Amino acid sequence: MPDELIEIxxxxxxxxxxxxxxxxxxxxxxxxxxxxLAVEVGAADPVPGFDNSAMxxxxxxxxxxxxxxxxxxxxDESRAGRPAERAVRAGEAILISTGAMVPEGADSVVRVEDxxxxxxxxxxxxxVEPGGNVRRxxxxxxxxxxxxxxxxxxxxxxxxxxxxxGRGAAECTRRPRVYVLTTGDELHEPGEPLRPGGIRNSxxxxxxxxVEASGAEVAEVETxxxxxxxxxxxxxxxxxxxxxxxxxxxxxxEHDHVRAAxxxxxxxxxxxxxALRPGKPTSFGVHDSGALMFGLPGNPVSAMVTFLLxxxxxxxxxxxxxxxxxxxxxxxxEEYAKKPGRAHAVRCRLELRDDGWHARTTxxxxxxxxxxxxxxxxxxxxxxxxxxxxxxxxxxxxLLA
Length: 401
What we know:
This protein has six helices and 26 strands. By secondary structure, the protein is an alpha/beta fold. The strands form seven sheets. A six-stranded mixed β-sheet has the order 7-4-6-5-9-8, with no helix packed on it. Strands 16-13-17-21-20-18 form a six-stranded mixed β-sheet, sandwiched between helices. Strand 8 and strand 9 form a beta hairpin. The longest helix is centred in the last third of the chain and has 20 residues. It is elongated. The two termini are 32 Å apart. 40% of the residues are buried.
C-alpha cells in the first residue's frame, strides 16, 4: 500500500466530483416508489379544484342562519362527483356530502349533527360563519405552485401529491447499472461443498443487496479466479455499466491482479489506499466510458463499509439525490478504544432519546466479523487523529438505512 493514505472524506470528495446525475426517464407512478425525481413537479391546476364540503351536512347561506334556529327548504343534493344542479337562494339549503362541490350561492356548510330534517325542510340549530366547513379551491396547492423539488426520493406521500396534480408519471433519474465482481480462488457459492481453504462468497450476496437498497440496478454478479487474464477479461465485460464494484484483489499480494488490470484497461486512478479501518486497500478510478470503478477489499465487512461510505454516495450523486442526507451525529454511550493513525468506521446500534441519537457498538469490530453488521443502524466515524473516545462524546455517524 502507498505510504500516504488518503482520508476518507477526501476520498468521498474525489468520488462525488466525478459522479453526475444520469438522464431522466418517465416512470409510471405505480412503478416510481423509491425512485429519484429528476425535474420539479408543479401544479397546472389548483388542488382542490373547487370549493368543497369538509362535512356531511347542508350547504347554506351563512346569513340565513343568523337567527338560528331557523327552518330552510331543501331544494337539491350535492354528492361527491355529482354536483347540485341549481344554486342556493335565500331561505334554501342543499344536502351535501363530504368532498362534494359547494353549490353556487352557498358560502358555508352546517354539519348534519346541528340540524334536524322533516318533510323536505331542515331545521338549522346553530349560526354558521361564512366559509365554515368549506375547503377552498387551491387550499392545498395553488395553480402554478411547485410541489416537489428535483432530487426527492419518492415515497407514498410524494406519489399521492403527484397524482393529485394530475400527473400519471414522474420524470425520474435513470437508475445506475452496477456490475459486481468478486475475486478469489477461495470463493464458493452457498450450497457448494467447501474445498480445503475455501470460504463462502458472502460478498456476492451482501454487496448486490446494498446496490439495490441504494436505488441502483444490479447489471451482473460475477466471480473470477485469481488469474491476471481472467481478471482483466471480467473487468472489461463490466465496462458498459455505470458503476463497477470489484471485491478483493486490490491489495499488494502476489495474487492481487485488479489494480494492474484496471491500469491496462485505461482506468484513470483517483486514489488507492484509504486511511480507514476497515477498508484500507480501497481504490477508485474512472474509465474512458464514464464507468466509475471501485476496488473494494475482499474482507466482507470492509467491502460493505467501503461500499456504504464511497460507492453508495456515488450512486446517490448519479441519481441526483442528496449525498449528505444520511449523515447525523450520535452520543457514544460506551468508551471506544482507538489509536491515532486511521479513521475507524464503527458498526453501531442506535437509540433515539430526548437529546438525539445514542450509539453502542454491535460488538467485535474485526473486518472478518460479518455478524458485526447484524442489527447495525449506523457507522460511527471516528477521525484519523482521534485516540480513545470516552463514553458521552458526540460523534459523526453515517446512517445505514
